[in-house]
Amino acid sequence: MTGTGTERYGERMFSHGHDAELDRLHGLAGALDDGSFRRLARLPIREDWRCLDIGAGLGTVTRWLARRCPRGRVVAMDRDIRLLSVLDDRTGWEAVESDVTREDFPAGGFDLIHARWLFAHLPSRDAVLERVVRWLAPGGWLVIEDLARFPLESSPHPLYRKVSLAICDAVINRIGTDPAWARTFPAPLRPLGLTDLGSETSLPAVGPTPMGRFWRRSGEQLAADLTGQLGITEAELAEFGELVESPDFHDLCLATVAAWGRRPE
Ligand SMILES: C[S@@+](CC[C@H](N)C(=O)[O-])C[C@H]1O[C@@H](n2cnc3c(N)ncnc32)[C@H](O)[C@@H]1O
Asked: Residues in domain Methyltransferase type (predicted)?
């Protein structure tokens, strides 16, 4: 299904002012942080690196970078920085409230740029990515991690598959997210002149897990879309909510596909 995508992320859907958004993003961070930290730890990070975390959310990756780069500069950028301050550790990094589709940092200013679950949601994601790469210093690394829908398409559980794909369709309709883009990684990085390209996929599961919490909260926020034009009944949505946090249920959720590359010296 292709959506018009006239709304922007956070304007109404997934607003950081929504009561349940903190809980939803805690679920996401809990599901994905270990994989992100493992991937980032493989880079030759130095204490004086200048790092940028775009679409930082709660800033869990920002804080990890700040601990690794105590003599550098770590910037968390988000179009809404309200939830960046809810975690205790506020040292060694700074917040910039800005829209990455409009912000322009000076060329060559960062040794590491990270973005997780951001680019797939952006209109003109390839053009924004091309601009972001210019912010890398010679030898600097780009690490992007994004969502991909393919594990949901093959779910053997009919209700879980039906509601999960409808959640994806609701997000596509609202903001034009591309849930298949990351499946092509690292292809979008090839035209950008980066070297040392790599890619890796993580497959978090729902059940009594942080991802289950995230996915249930996502469905709840989109309830009006799901039970309206997307044909999910209220009973199906309620059953889905119980199922995805049930200790008796296990299935794969959205994948996280990561890609990285280095700007030549
Ligand atoms: C799905 S959340 C991911 C948060 C965090 N990266 C994580 O993985 O835990 C997407 C984040 O990107 C931010 N965002 C969305 N569009 C943005 C834009 N155009 N510019 C900057 N941040 C944006 C949202 O406000 C939100 O915090």
From this structure: 52-144
